[in-house]
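#lab-general

N.A. 3:47 PM
ok so I finally got the sequence cleaned up, no stray characters, all 132 residues accounted for. can someone with queue access submit it? mine expired

B.Y. 3:52 PM
send it over

N.A. 3:53 PM
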Amino acid sequence: GPKAPAGSEEEYSTRVQNVQQRNLDPWIAQSDCGGLKEGDILVPDHCPSVPEAVARVQYNGTVYIRKGTYKWDGVLVVQKHLHIRGEPEPTEGVPGGKGRPTLEGRWLLGEHSSGSFKHVNCIARFNQPPAQ
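B.Y. 4:20 PM
back already:
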């Protein structure tokens, strides 16, 4: 049928169903957060951006992030309790080792929000002029 517009609820539902039909990677299934539960988000499978994932994940849910670099502009405000779990890299801690997801952007944890981050590199760049 016709493709739903990107970012639409219809497209999102289709993505969720597609993920449900697959075997999940061990790093997700064996996560300390209990695997992909209803209301959890897998990036980029469910949605391509970290801000959209944070907006969609349910309270106390988990955003699982595959390897790659994810950038956003402005400040990503978190107004809930959530967990971020990146795809681990076997060479973690080894000089020159790399590969785990890089989240390049600014975060703000709002009042009463909290969370835990594992297996992600976070970079905040303040030297770029704000977009006009």
